[in-house]
Amino acid sequence: MMRNDPIKHLFIWPAVLVVLAISIFPLIYSLTTSFLSFRLIPPIPPRVVWLGNYTTLLQEPRFWNALFITTLVAVIAVTLQYVIGFAVALALNARVPGERLFRVGLLLPMLLAPVAVALVARMIFNPTMGPLNQLLTQFGFPNLPFLTNGHWALGCIIAVEVWQWTPFMILMLLAGLQTLPEDVYEAAELENASHWQQFWGITFPMMLPISAAVVFIRLIESYKIMDTVFVMTGGGPGVDTETLTLFAYQEGFKKFNLGYTSALSFLFLIAITVIGTTYLVLLRPHLEKRR
Amino acid sequence: MSTRSLTGLSPSARRLAAFGCIVWCFITLFPLYWVVVTAFKTPPGVVGGPTYIPFVDFTPTLQPFIDLYQGIRGEFFRTFLNSTMVGLSSAVIATAIGAMAAYALVRFEFRVRLVSGLAFFVLALGGYLVFNATLGLTRPQSLLLAFPIALVAAILVNRLPLPGPILGNEDILFWFVSQRMFPPIVTAFALYLLYTEIGRMGFQLVDSFIGMTLCYVAFSLPIVVWLMRDFFEALPIEVEEAAMVDNVPTWRIFLGIVVPMSMNGLIATFLITLAFVWNEFLFALFLTNAKWQTLPILVAGQNSQRGDEWWAISAAALVAIVPMMIMAALLGRMMRSGVLLGAIK
């Protein structure tokens, strides 16, 4: 039931004003800045270059590299998170012994500061005193260049992302699993459907809307990855692990190239919007068909 | 509760599932164990290669924590205090005004014309350009002028019987939540520019308590509105209706009836918001430099200052992590009672 009372404005305006002030303000500010050539160091007075910053950026290999790296990390990490998360959620839903203990323990990583997690990861991956390397040497592997080789470093970053955010998937998928209706399974049981068939025929399709939402949230969040990379590799070696946010940070805060950075953040915003919309459009037919 | 899907599993499959869970749990917990252990090691104990069990293969020491407390590697104590103050105040404010907005979106009807939304954006942008380019005002001055003008104009436009689609509560909610889709770098960088320019006008926002709190409140509001709306929707409306029959004013219904009834949800939302702010890195990196530095920045700075002093890094990371471990325990307890279930639907 909806009521109508003038006091409703008093309830909603504080939140709207804060969001407007902190998001529309900066949006307008950096939108206009992105059309300027504007540097703080060395100080150059702002000059209108219209789309100049954007075209320079689009021709810059470093930008495409950052976009590619970010996409790679986001897609691989989210896929792994989803697969592992779904498996663990299914197991927990089936009341594996010790399930309560698992729940609290599994929640932990997503509440920790990514910065602290990245530092811990640096310790674990450390070639001389890290436990991982000791373990691998036991199996006869040589000293692996975990953070100093581009490919390995990327793999390590993905591993840390998976470690930190699989709990979120588990949590959400588990909550979803608990809302599934029981009678469908009873019917399937009567039909003598195997567990594998039950999973692909019932559980997975019925979980599709929740899965789609959770994967969407994680995908968007993964594109913003910065803290982990900042601490683990700083974008290096070279620019092998440089993500979009890190690239923007380098340009904006190390070189104070304001117009350029603003244009970069807008390209980033466009990229995220395009990716998000494509994802939703691709998924929509599947979601509607199942209902 | 559907516990059916796997209960009929054969014992071997069940064992396999349990084994998988244990493996994942080990992967989850081992790095945490590693920080705890390393934080109690002496420098030679770390450099000599990995050791695992205290008192068996190394002798634990409290020295890293003493160094930390004495501020040998940055003002740890003050940074901790900063993080706590900024975190608590922004979580309280965000939960309060976010819950109010969520309640309004659940119980009252809102109608906003799309035209008025567009008018706001066009006027804010245009006004800013006009003031800045033609009238020669500084950038923040023009923004601060254009903003209220655009706001008032948008409200007036909303009253006019203009054609075009009308947005309802769902759309307003979507607008709130969509703020989270933004890459924070867009906001962080622009906010830094804006804060510096306002600072030049004599009102310091960069590296200040107000600036940080304001930015974190805005940053947390989407989540608060999203989570709280589900809690409010789940509340039985009869109590509120009974109160309305007795002519109790709305704000007393909200404070006296709705807030107590949704206390669990409010606490959970508060804790989640606190965790987000406590861990936040990017805004803190841009908007603070010395005085109001928060824990993640200090922790991130640990690895470059004097080479990799792992014992000290572990101690610092541990201090940043422990409050969140306590929160995980609290949240885990709430999770079991199904408090957060509604948020996903």
Taking the alpha carbons of the first and last residues of chain A, their distance comes to 27 Å
What distance lies between the first and last C-alpha atoms of chain B, to the nearest angstrom? 15 Å
Low-pLDDT segments, ≥5 res of chain A: none
What are the segments of chain B in which pLDDT stays under 50 over at least 5 consecutive residues?
1-6
Which structural class is indicated by helix and strand composition of chain B?
Answer: mainly alpha
Question: Which structural category fits the helices and strands of chain A?
Answer: mainly alpha
Per DSSP E runs of 2 or more residues, the count of β-strands of chain A stands at: 2
Mean pLDDT of chain B: 83
The SSE string of chain B, one letter per element, is HHHHHEHHEHHHHHHHHH
Helix content of chain B: over 70%
Q: Helical element count of chain A?
A: 12
How do the helices and strands line up, and which of them pair or pack?
The complex is a heterodimer of chains A (291) and B (345).
Chain A: H1 7-33, E1 36-39, E2 44-48, H2 52-59, H3 61-93, H4 99-111, H5 114-124, H6 131-138, H7 150-177, H8 183-190, H9 195-223, H10 227-232, H11 244-254, H12 258-290
Chain B: H1 4-7, H2 11-39, H3 43-47, H4 63-70, H5 76-107, E1 112-113, H6 114-134, H7 139-159, E2 166-167, H8 169-178, H9 184-200, H10 209-234, H11 238-245, H12 250-261, H13 263-279, H14 282-287, H15 295-305, H16 310-336
Antiparallel strand pairs in B: 1-2
Describe the model:
The complex is a heterodimer of chains A (291) and B (345). Chain A has 291 residues and is mostly helical. Chain A has helices spanning 7-33, 52-59, 61-93, 99-111, 114-124, 131-138, 150-177, 183-190, 195-223, 227-232, 244-254, 258-290, and strands at 36-39, 44-48. In chain A, a hairpin with a 4-residue loop joins strand 1 (36-39) and strand 2. In chain A, 45% of the residues are buried. The model of chain A has no long low-confidence stretch (mean pLDDT 85). Chain B has helices at residues 4-7, 11-39, 43-47, 63-70, 76-107, 114-134, 139-159, 169-178, 184-200, 209-234, 238-245, 250-261, 263-279, 282-287, 295-305, 310-336, and strands at 112-113, 166-167. Chain B has 345 residues and is mainly alpha-helical. The two termini of chain B are 15 Å apart. In chain B, helix 2 (11-39) crosses helix 16 (310-336) and helix 4 packs across helix 16. Chains A and B meet through helix 1, helix 3, helix 4, helix 5 and helix 7 of A and helix 1, helix 2, helix 5, helix 6 and helix 7 of B.
